[in-house]
## 1
Amino acid sequence: MSTSSPLAITTVDTPLGPLTLTASPVGLRGVGWEGESVGVVSDGEPYISGSESAADASAVASILRASARQLEEYFSGLRTTFDLPLDPPGTPFQRAAWEILRTIPFGRTMTYAAQARRLGGANKSRAVGAANGRNPLVIIVPCHRVIGADGSLTGFAAGVERKAWLLRHEAAISGRADRGRR
């Protein structure tokens, strides 16, 4: 995590509304819809400085361009995985939970309980849900692919309607009629 590095922000239009992208010279820090905090430091404010080096400014611009391009490809149905440097702010437990999210294949889902078991215990389901709810890299780190044990679409900071849309989008592209329960 690079809380002292300058951040830059851009916006990408999507079928679900504009997404705000935040990047540091290290990687993408946040992706979120209007009203969501994306990649901010602990006091809730993004660190943006006019004194960054030319190398930092170039790195941030490159990361934002690649992120915007890959998200546009995702929404166009041309991309099923992301290849971006990531720099999300989070606790060690949150980062571990988010790493598991990155292993859920495109067009598939995982339950909160299964994610918790992969973190060392089914009793961690609530903690997993809380960590997923703080995921600053929506879509890139696919927390929308986590569902309730009964198949319900619970818990998505951007709204269950967006979660359902993302799952339908991925199912249509991957050729799966169901939600690909794993």
## 2
Amino acid sequence: MKRLVIIRHAKTEHSGYDNDFQRELTERGIGDAESITKDLNEWKVFPDKIISSPATRAITTAKLFATSLGYNTSEIEEIKGLYFDYSTQDFLDLIQNTNDEIDTLFIVGHNPFMHFLSQNMSKLYDGHTPTCSTVVLDFEVNNWNNVEPRQGLLFLHLYPKLYK
């Protein structure tokens, strides 16, 4: 089995789009990430690899998840294309070229792309994808190159309002 975890970055400051790439997380965003990673710990969902957009809000979210889940933050891979450039096919290529020694892959990025990916990779996902939304999909395959759209089984969907 291969597990894909799609994460939208946590809540950010509203500083406009002139400095969009550098927007920081708010205290609420940090707290939301802590709540969700606590649940991931309880469900024993741990990353073998984390890939993130290099935008400040995404990489900060990735580092919060990594720290809480026992993953070395220096091993987070940053891919510029996850900052609004990737198509669904680019994303599928990324997943299908993942080393098969990795069983659980975390991807941290931005909406609307994270929402579209959650829908496109899952058989039955029709939820919303607010900030810090975390969608855990399981694929009944042994190799990443066999992962296909619409085949992921929804294992978990965690989002901040679950904790309010």
## 3
Amino acid sequence: MSERWHDWLLLPQRIALHEATATAVIADVHLGYAQARRQLGDAIPLRRVRDELAPLSIAAKMHDIRHLIIAGDLFERGYDAEVCTEFLDVLAEWYITCIGVVPGNHDRGIDKAAPLIPVLADPFDLAGWHITHGDGTVTGDRVIQGHEHPATRIARRKVPCFLTRGTHLVLPAFSRDAAGVSVEGSERWIGWARHAIGDAK
């Protein structure tokens, strides 16, 4: 179930949608995670980029999404040309234009993706909102950030969540492989509202 917050619609697909500009913002996609784990010897199934992005496709069919901004960590272990091409091909099929990536701490070598994927200034301004990854110092108001992978508990089950306080929004990790970091018991998140995603896809 989606929820309105200021100029945004918080979607259960772990997406913040700025309706006025038809722009979806996601963070911590971590494409290439399964490949990286397999290289380390873990026996986990590979998923195509199309499968990783499936929640975006679901949201795009329900809402007017024409643009996409990634608030950091598009890749798991730095830029991967093959994964990047597949990512852009899938977006093109869905008629979604990638505005660009605000680099995150996992996006090593992201400059190699330009000009296919623009590398955006940190923070990037979208209609007066400041989009950042959040692995450095985050200041100011009207902030949309990633990096934290917030999660909360519902009926003893840990689920991803959005965090809000005033005009500051912390996005959940878009990647289904990100277990999430529980905000319960953390002094850092006292006073923040939790918007749990009970049916995380």
